[in-house]
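Our consortium's second objective concerns turning raw sequence data into structural hypotheses that experimental partners can test. To show how far this objective has progressed, the report includes one record in full. It was chosen at random from the queue rather than selected for favorable results. The single chain below, 104 residues long, was entered without modification.
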Amino acid sequence: MITVNTETIPGSEIESVLGLVRGNTIRARHVGQDIMAGLRNIVGGEIKEYTEMLSQAREEALKRMVEEAEKMGADAVVNVRFATSQVMGGAAEILAYGTAVRLK
């Protein structure tokens, strides 16, 4: 499955637009991660536990979006975007969305 954040795919022509596809996940912080994050906040630097957690969440949301596109018979997803929102204290939603297309 081709996934791009552009409107077109170089060297390919879009035959038909199948519609919006999306995938999401909601992740909550872990107490152990919060302790390490608190310590890193004191001394500064990257909070690797949260970076890893959000990276995994983005991958899961992207995977779910691609699965939805495959169910529609898509060859590719164009205009892929990510959005993040806080759904409650300590939990965030990661949303991946784009347009499923069939290529010529």
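The partners drew two points from this record. The radius of gyration is 17 Å. Strands lie at 2-3, 14-28, 76-88, 91-103. Both points have been shared with the crystallography group to help prioritize constructs.
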